[in-house]
Amino acid sequence: MTSDNQEHTAQSATYAPPERLVNPENGRQKPWVSSMAEYEALYNESIQQPDKFWTRTANELLTWDRPFTHVTHGSLKEGNMAWFPDGQLNVSYNCVDRWAIKDPNRVAFVYEADEPGQASSVTYGELLAKVCGVANVLHSFGLRKGDTVAIYMPMVPEAAVAMLACARLGLVHTVVFAGFSSASLAERVADARCRVVITADEGLRGSRPIRTKAIVDEALKSCPEVERVLVLRRTGSEQVEFNAPRDVWWHEAVAAQRPYCPPVPVNAEDPLFLLYTSGSTGKPKGVVHTSGGYLLGAALTLKYVFDIHDGDVFCCTADIGWITGHSYVVYGPLALGSTSVVFESVPTYPDASRYWKLVEDHKITQFYTAPTAIRALRRHGDDFVTKCDLSSLRVIGSVGEPINPDAWTWYNEVVGGGRCAVVDTYWQTETGSHVITPLPGATIAKPGSATFPFFGIELAILDPTTGVEIEGNDVSGVLAIKRSWPSMARTIAGDHKRFLETYLSPYPGYYFAGDGASRDADGYYWIRGRVDDVINVSGHRLSTAEVESALIGHHAVAESAVVAAPDELTGQSICAFVTLKDGIEANDKLKAELVKEVRTRIGPIATPKVLILVDELPKTRSGKIIRRILRKVVAGEADQLGDLSTLSDPSILDILVREVSVAI
Ligand code: WTA
Predict the structure, then answer these.
(1) Does ipTM surpass 0.95 in this model?
(2) What pLDDT shows up at residue 6?
(3) Kind plus residue range of the DSSP H or E element containing 511
(4) What are the UniProt keywords, alphabetically (predicted)?
């Protein structure tokens, strides 16, 4: 099957927006943006008249308790950016009350539980009562505006309820992905100074229980400042320990509260949440997002990039533990009053049709997932897809890592049936919402390219060494953004210096994204992957330093160096090189133990795929490990090592190449 709109140029195939989207039948509305000329007009306005553009969109999409009179303040150079600084609003009011008042029976969340056939839904009216109940519980715990709450929960609607309950009181939430280990959770709870943790007895994924509460208990052994743990009963398992008065059952506490709680107006610049993400150094950083600018970014991008209209059912498969879950399972869809699908399970449970059955059952109109899932499902064959009725779909999206053209084409043809727009959205935890992306009714797509900047995003490609902007087309360098935008992160919790050093000082006057990129002859952007020590495994960011320090924590390890290896399924995988302390014997049992050490310290997502015990690591004469050499060797490019003059002992190269060829 090929798409109706596919055209082949000398360089690559291009795909025009599908006819059915641009000229809809049956009274369906036209896309919000239905031509490149319309995109350009809006984009130009956002750059040339930003005050006008942002005032209009912020007033159209959000309800303000106190209108802002001032759109933006500060500069990237100074790192003091602020948006709508004198405006006040409440995020939960915007996401819940507005729709609960107007249309209480509208479905806010469709909950697809782990076990098929157990779907249920939550209306906006019900959501308001649930959010208010939990907000009152948090208030009864003594929490007040500005306090921080950790959320460690499975993918159930109550996880979103917990986030919105925090937002209702002006509390700052920090959601920790429930696949992280107790040690990782403890580190985040302590860094964010949380006094309350919200969790569930257990989670379920592919019928396997995850002992969520037990992991919290373990983590809190090193967090004495936590006073209360609010526990949702998800599975009702008998094995869960309960330590009253610290632990409080969600259902009991909520039952004691009034189901209305007045929303607390906050300043647009008050923090809405912290989200920890990996950087170049070992310690994860708590990226801070604001209430006004962030919410506007999430709502505006979702509206335009997925072309959301009334009655749409939007499904983003990301976990709420990641930024994608924050912006596109919770805040974006609810700020638009849309219906959002909360998917608890995994794409292959009970079989590889799960996503597509989900689309059929709930008549999903926009579907958003990661390239790693697309590649994995493609391996199972087309029948799992084609046996389901996917005719409700209009826009299908991809996020988290570059999508290879083959996977893009399969997604377009087999899942989209050649009738949907495919949006390859590039963004980051720090950007809060999409920054480079096609618009479904306007952009002519090129598989593998995230295409053009979203409104308000002024991109630049810089020479990595000189920092000079490279003008024109057909150029490559590092990706940067030239001016601030509403949903960008404002700081790193407790460490503004690190924020400046990571994003703003490397190239003064620019936001440095950490990715390499090219702009082709037609002006399309192509993301080339990270240029720092961040590894992207299945769309999850991990820092090499974090994995290295987990390995060094093991008593047998002398040194370690971790690099990314190319991986067909997960994009990249973790390859660890380890040297042992004197007198310790290298064997398979020890290797397995070291892999386990990383899983326990960080979590299963950080599991090294390959771990190689070596006698020596490549180093400079001053003793610095040269990771570049290891990267080249694992990528099978040992013949392209470049300048080796700094390598102190060139004789180790042959041994390394041999060991890698045996291991990979
Ligand atoms: C990568 C996820 C290519 C990139 C939203 C970025 C992508 C990092 C794409 C951020 C894409 C994300 N094409 N690469 N469409 N989307 N990335 O913070 O390297 O988990 O810097 O945010 O993922 O990952 P994060």
Answers:
(1) yes
(2) 62
(3) strand 511-519
(4) Ligase
- HEC states along 332-375? HHHHCCCEEEEECCCCCCCCCCHHHHHHHHHCCCEEEECHHHHH
Chain-centre distance for alpha carbon 108:
21
If you measure from the C-alpha of residue 140 to the centroid of ligand 1, how many angstroms do you get, rounded to a whole number? 39
Q: Is the pLDDT confidence value at 406 over 50?
A: yes
Are the CB atoms for 633 and 655 separated by under 8 Å? Answer: no
Ligand 1 atom with the shortest distance to the CA of 322: 20
- Structure token digits, residue 556: 């047998």
Three-class secondary structure of residue 396 per DSSP: strand
Average pLDDT over residues 229-242: 96
Q: What is the pTM of this model?
A: 0.94
**Token pair recorded at residue 628:** 């570049």
| Contacts for 117 with CB less than 8 Å, ≥ 6 apart | none
**Distance between Cα 402 and ligand 1 center (Å):** 8
Tokens describing residue 362: 């709930």
**Ligand 1 first shell, C-beta below 6 A:** 277, 322-324, 399-402, 424-429, 450, 513-515, 527, 529-530, 536, 541
Report the alpha-carbon distance of residue 400 to residue 324 in Å, rounded: 9
Q: Which residue, by CA, sits nearest to atom 24 of ligand 1?
A: 428
- Cβ distance 331 to 298 under 8 Å? yes
Pick the atom of ligand 1 nearest to 403's CA. Answer: 13
> Which of 515, 535, 543 to probe ligand 1 with, by most ligand atoms within 8 A of CB?
515
Q: Evaluate if residue 494 carries a pLDDT over 80.
A: yes
Whether 95 has a pLDDT exceeding 70, the answer reads yes
Averaged pLDDT, 107-133: 98
* Angle between the N-to-C axes of helices 588-601 and 544-552, in degrees from 0 to 180, rounded to the nearest 10: 120
- Measure the CA–CA gap between 99 and 63, rounded to whole angstroms: 12
- How many Å apart are CA 576 and CA 551, to the nearest integer? 9
Q: Whose CA is nearest to atom 8 of ligand 1?
A: 428
* pLDDT at residue number 267: 98
DSSP result, 526-590: EEEEESSSEEEETTEEEEHHHHHHHHHTSTTEEEEEEEEEEETTTEEEEEEEEEEPTTPPP-HHH
Q: What is the 3-state secondary structure (H, E, C) of 143-199?
A: CCCCCEEEEECCCCHHHHHHHHHHHHHCCEEEECCCCCCHHHHHHHHHHCCCCEEEE
Give the residue, 282 or 32, on which the prediction is more confident: 32
3-state secondary structure of 135: helix
